[in-house]
Amino acid sequence: MSEILAKYGFLIVPIIKVAILVFVVLTLDAYLTWLERKVIAHIQARWGPHRVGPHGLLQPLADGIKFILKEDPLPSGVDKKAYFFAPFLTLMLALTSLAVIPFGPDITVFGYTTNFGIADVNISLLVLFAITALGVYGIALAGWGSNNKYSLLGGLRSSAQMISYELALTLSVVGVLLIAGDFSLKHIVEKQAGDFGLLSWNIVGLTKGGGGFTQIIGCVCFFIAAIAETNRVPFDLPEAESELVAGFHTEYASMKFAMFFIGEYTSMIAVSSLFAILFFGGWLSPFPASWALTHYLPSIILVPLGLWVIFDGIRYETILGRVILPGIGFVMTAIGASLFLSPMAVVNEMIQGPFWFFAKVGAVLFFYIWMRGTLPRFRYDQLMDFGWKFLLPVSIANVVLTSAMIMWRMK
């Protein structure tokens, strides 16, 4: 195997990584819909999905089958090229944006060392912004090609919104770039490594590794602008069900309708990943490296979580749940115990980076969902005023402050 990878690894490894990434992301997208419905249901004192499988865990599968089998009518008078191309473009750009994101440090498998991502580009941040900037075209084409006034208004709203907040989004990361001195996402994470854990992250910036100046202002500006870029509450004006029926995707059904939502949730994952990398240390642990016990946290957490799943399964209301949930809990407990007790230090160290990275991304995604169940939608004039009159000036001020601090430290 080592000889094959040494000779053909440049071809085999990227294909394997692309296949794994697409499978994992599409699965995450499916279960993000389940998580969103569950969290919002609990906020509103409801059950949410709970009939299809234990706790409704098979609901995404049922939704996928429904979309595949659902009738796909073609409205009259549509621009067929734009109408059919729009959902494919939206999904393609969302998936492509994940290609330059490093999900962890470099790994070595069978003697072959590769980056924990699809492509390691030295200007990965610029590439990511270039790809996400094209995302507006999918929505605009959907609105234009649908031959529907509501869809057209949704597409126009999206164009104005994404252009307005793209400026604040870009300027909010300039402070991080000034501190790191690099456009590579991998190097930006490595720049935040330090002896004091989270104190070295850009969000805190209290140590030399973090640049000596907190990026809390840039962090807040980036997050607000990112929510607007992904058209999520309270900035989901392009959809605005109460005003535009369903916005730009009013005339879409079946899998073309599903593609827009897969693209939206994939964009949420990409933005959350970028947020974790720029401000929260990416795959770095929040604890100092000298705290050796924290290296076992990924495996230790699995044990009580698995025991809770077993306990929940034993008292579940259906026979299927009482069979499946204890089995899943037993596997989780066994994996956690084996990683903690057995001399598998290599495996335990290998999962450190991905564990912390996906934990941070999960926290950001939960915040996305939390806001949807909490905040009302802005009026359109409020949306534009906030972007141009508040967010953009504050982002520029953060660039000026960071530049001044760096110049002062150079003296």
Verbal overview:
- Helix content is 66%, strand content 1%.
- 38% of the residues are buried.
- The protein is built from 16 helices and 2 strands.
- The chain has one domain.
- α3 (80-97) runs parallel beside α11 and α7 (174-180) runs parallel beside α16.
Classify the helix fraction into a percent range. Answer: 55-70%
Helical element count?
16
Oligomer: single chain
Shape: globular
Q: What is the domain total for the residues?
A: 1
Tell me about the biggest sheet?
2 strands, antiparallel
SS elements, strand count:
2
Distance between the termini: 54 Å
Residue share in β-strands = under 5%
Strand order of the largest sheet: 1-2
**Poorly predicted spans:** none
Estimated structural class:
mainly alpha
Rg over CA atoms: 23 Å
Q: SSE order, as H and E?
A: HHHEEHHHHHHHHHHHHH
Whole-number average pLDDT?
88
Describe the structure concisely.
The protein has 16 helices and two strands. The protein is an all-alpha fold and 411 residues long.
What are its keywords?
single chain, 411 residues, mainly alpha, two-stranded antiparallel sheet, 2 strands, 1% strand, globular
Write the layout of secondary structure elements.
Elements: H1 2-43, H2 59-69, H3 80-97, E1 107-109, E2 112-114, H4 124-133, H5 135-145, H6 149-172, H7 174-180, H8 185-191, H9 216-229, H10 241-244, H11 254-279, H12 297-314, H13 319-341, H14 345-350, H15 352-372, H16 380-410
Antiparallel strand pairs: 1-2
